[in-house]
Amino acid sequence: MIVTFLNESMCFYIKNKHLGNTYIFYNFYYYFRFPIIGWMFLNVFFNKIQKVIIYLFLLFSFVLFFVDNFYLYGFYSLHSNYQLLGGIFIIIISLIHFYNILKNTEKNNPLTTPFFWVATGFFFYFLCTLPFFGILNFLLKKDIIFVGAYLIIIKSFSILLYSSIGIDFYIQWKYQKSEN
Amino acid sequence: MEISEIGKLVIILTGLFLLMGLFVLSFFLVYRKNQNAKECQIENLNQALMQTQIEIQEQTLKTIAQEIHDNIGQVLSLAKLNLNTFPVITDAAIQTKMDDTKQLISKAIIDLRDLSRSLHGDKINELGLDQAISAELKFLQNTGQFTTKLLITGNPYKMASQKEMVLFRMVQEAMNNVIKHSKAKNIEVQLQYQQEVFQLTITDNGIGFNPAKLQPAQTGIGLKSMQNRAALIGGIFSVISGAEKGTCIAIKIKNVPSAVGILENIQT
């Protein structure tokens, strides 16, 4: 969250001051963001195959970072392929997390489980922004006005995402308080 | 603002994906809720079953205790009485044998009485958990094979009688395990009475075992039954042990106001 905040602040500043292209920052940010989310899920997955899926994505991210930067897109255009694949990856691991909760034989209420909210937030955010990020480069060339307008929808999903992360923190705080 | 065809498509897809997500999430939550309800039902059934098992066991033990007291005990008392009414024997050797026999019968009567009391559940109601456990430990100490110790911390309070009964049976089960398997010399039972938590700990200095390496078949009825009994009274059962490190069995019960009985734990 701190990195997201710093990245967004920096890009906002650069954009406002017309200092240049912010895509490079977003690209680097995404190569950081998806693996970090994957790593978060790694801590709640106990199945070997599920862990392997995440490790494979981490490896894939590392490879794609070089391929996209040096061969496919370069530094100054958006790496929408990675955004699309990263989004699909997060959707898949969120669904795996839901499946794990369903398979759990212990009686539990998912709504009181902190990580359920994180998974739900990510699931909705990446699912609903997938069509947009999937063709973002194309849209930037064809309909830049629409991209600007669509950012409102992206921001709405961002609010939903960070609200669910907020709920996660709140539940964790409540648990810690009750344990003390 | 005019939205291009591609823009419309993106918006439609976003809406569709949102609906899809909502459907997945609702399905997930409803499914999980049903699953919880089913698990709750099974849990309640298991608890009721366990409760019945314990009641049957208690009744059987009570009958055996009664039989020992009323039947075998009476026969032995009569035998002792008969021996006492024997005319004076002049032969010293026979007299010594006679005295030894009387002593043996007296010991058998005392042992049987203790056993009968131990089996009879009402003893816990009469004596209370602390005293009942203390009597059990004394019984073990008297065998001369064990050194026993009872530690009571906090302000003792009375719990629901069924809860105390279950705890007492667990102590008996643990002691039975110690006698059968542990090769221990020292047994220590600790009762910790805290305001909202009660903890019972049974520790021995025997050969111990590795709980993680125990096969399901090896756990036997003893540990499993203790685990089930603990669950029945809403307790947390734990075993800490290791090869040559002795064994520590703990049962922790949270929120133990005396009024709460086992039946209240079973939600119907």
Q: Summary?
A:
Chain A has 180 residues and is mostly helical. In chain A, 82% of the residues lie in helices and 0% in strands. In chain A, α1 packs antiparallel against α2 (23-42).
Describe, in plain words, how this protein is organized in 3D.
The complex is a heterodimer of chains A (180) and B (268). Chain A has helices at 2-16, 23-42, 48-72, 80-103, 114-134, 136-142, 144-179. Chain A has 180 residues and is mostly helical. Chain A has one domain (30-175). In chain A, helix 1 runs antiparallel to helix 2 (23-42) and helix 2 packs parallel to helix 4. Chain A is globular, with a radius of gyration of 18 Å. The two termini of chain A are 27 Å apart. Chain B is of the alpha+beta class. Chain B has a domain at 146-268: Histidine kinase-like ATPase, C-terminal domain (Heat Shock Protein 90, 2-Layer Sandwich). Chain B has a 5-stranded mixed sheet with strand order 1-2-3-5-4, with helices on one face. The interface between A and B is medium-sized, with 29 and 25 residues.
Helix content of chain A: over 70%
Helix segment tally of chain B? 7
Quick check: average pLDDT of chain B?
A: 82
Query: What percentage of residues of chain B falls in helices of 4 or more residues?
Result: 55-70%
- Overall strand count of chain A: 0
Describe the largest sheet of chain A: none
Q: Kindly, what is the distance between the CA atoms of the first and last residues of chain B, rounded to a whole number of angstroms?
A: 61 Å
The number of domains of chain A is: 1
